[in-house]
Design a protein that fits this description.
The chain is built from two helices and 16 strands. By secondary structure, the protein is mainly β. It has one domain (about 1-240): Porin (Beta Barrel), CATH 2.40.160. Strands 1-2-3-4-5-6-7-8-9-10-11-12-13-14-15-16 form a 16-stranded antiparallel β-barrel. Strand 1 and strand 2 (about 50-60) form a beta hairpin.
């Protein structure tokens, strides 16, 4: 249960490093999965009081693919980086580093026709920590997957299905007994752009709002928590192009 709750938080939160995590949304997912070229040069994250808590800077190769993210903390000091490698135009590996060196490495496996089929997560010492089998995808979003943890031999599942009456995709998160442990709702506008995510686990509720400019680029997204019946903004991400 503890391990699953950690997974649910990963699915619901956008942490300081935008790793390509199954079930977790990031504005860089389209670029990493090959649906967009280039993207923002910088991302500034502010807390509810408007104070900068960290900044991410992005570097791209000549093909417009993201190859490096560099992070600085609220004091302007370096706070880690993420490196991306591609083979035949496909994301091959992702390495997350902090001040002490390599922390995690993900390796991406594909089928003969180029579909993403598996993501393997390795720890600091190169040990396998997690293996994700990708069952279905909707463009850059993994809509169904099976996640197995090596050390604890635990298995989690999630799948995402479209509501036939709305522009909404509903992601159910389940434990190894297929018991529902939480739900994430992805809400799209009429043009197909994601505009809101809502996360529910028992009484725990979070939401994120995504805003676009007139050309369709994401310029801002925020994270809120429901507290005593009121939504309170925890942090806001501002993208600079």
């Amino acid at each position: 249960m503890i391990k699953f709750f950690k997974i649910f938080l990963l699915l619901c939160l956008n942490v300081s490093v935008f790793s390509y995590t199954p079930g977790k949304w990031s504005p860089m997912d389209k670029n990493l999965m090959g649906y967009e070229r280039f993207g923002p040069k910088e991302e500034v994250v502010k807390n509810s009081e408007g104070k900068i808590v960290y900044t991410a800077r992005y570097e791209y190769n000549e093909e417009g693919k993201l190859i490096k993210e560099t992070y600085t903390n609220s004091e302007g000091k370096e706070d880690g980086r993420t490196l991306y490698d591609y083979v035949n135009g496909k994301l091959n590996s992702e390495e997350i580093h902090d001040q002490n060196g390599l922390q995690e490495r993900r390796v991406f496996k594909y089928s003969f026709n180029g579909e993403l089929k598996e993501i393997i997560l390795y720890g600091t010492g190169g040990e396998e920590k997690q293996r994700c089998k990708v069952v279905h995808m909707k463009e850059e979003l993994i809509t169904e997957a099976v996640i197995r943890w090596k050390e604890h031999k635990e298995t989690e599942y999630f799948n995402m299905k479209k509501d036939p009456n709305e522009n909404v995709w509903v992601q159910d998160i389940m434990d190894e007994k297929k018991k529902n442990m939480g739900t994430v709702r992805y809400i799209f506008d009429d043009s197909g752009k994601l505009i809101r995510r809502e996360n529910v686990q028992n009484s725990y509720r979070r939401a994120s709002e995504i805003k676009y400019d007139s050309s369709g680029k994401i310029i801002e997204f925020s994270y809120s928590v429901l507290d005593a019946g009121n939504w309170k903004v925890l942090k806001t991400h501002h993208l600079v192009y």
